Amino acid sequence: MTPRLQEAVNAATAEVERTLATLLPAHDGPEQRLYTAMRYATLNGGKRLRPFLALQSAGLFSVDRGCALRVAAAIEMVHCYSLVHDDLPAMDDDDLRRGRPTAHKAFGEATAILAGDALLTRAFEALAHPLTHGDAQVRAELVLALAVASGAEGMVGGQMIDLEAEKQPLDMTAITRLQRMKTGALIGFAVESGAILGKAPAALRQALAGFAHDLGLAFQIADDLLDAEGSSAEAGKKTGKDAARGKATFVSLMGVERARAQAGMLAEQAAKHLDLFEEKAELLRDVAGWVIDRRA
Ligand code: GRG
Q1: What is the pLDDT of residues 232-256, one digit of tens each?
Q2: 160 CB contacts (<8 Å, ≥6 apart)?
């Protein structure tokens, strides 16, 4: 990661952390356990890639920082809910996430399911709140776009295809579609959200969509490479899972070397989409390099 990107990510992470803590306050009523699990799953961890993308995208259109932070936090809540549910015994059955016991290991399955449900709904509550944008049309557009990205047409649909793929391995076209839905759609919303908040013109939205498309695929290939080659200690989660399950991935279909080259090509291509933003998009260009070089 470039030093300027590291500095910006550290600063943004601290702001996102504060926003998440405000949107998810500690609670001492009879439902205290739910709030504790929601905070456990969301605070103090992760790369905060999606919130960073949302904040950078908002910066391109000079969106108010407080509004952008609420959207960034909402996206991270959806992401964290997906991790909590993905780790459950009925899905990936994982014990380790972000270097700590997974939510169901720490709180039990029932609480983990409820915490995931409540994070998802709290995210939409945050987007729909007038503090997120003064224009109700903009708030509705944010809610609609996040719903599409995270539901059956996006992340949840992708997860379903992924579960089915354990019975019958997929080819490259099917894996690309699955990953665009499962991880690409939420990354795409993060990048698009700043343009929605800033009421950006179509040509600029299109450039950002191109960036998000290539970045999402580069991110996923890097994730497959980490699973194939990375250490569990560094990644903070179990690695080697795809091969153990005999699952077809970008790496199993292309081989490590071609997959690495493809990720590099996609990262370069992603950055090219940002040419028309000139130096205002320099950190977003750095992100493209970061997602393929990361160790976690
Ligand atoms: C269960 C509804 C539901 C969806 C699950 C996104 C997802 C779908 C599951 C996550 C499992 C997984 C390992 C997906 C591969 C890519 C990915 C999303 C990795 C985790 O994201 P990072 O690397 O994690 O941004 P951090 O912890 O840094 O936020």
Answers
A1: 777 778 787 877 777 888 999 999 9
A2: 152
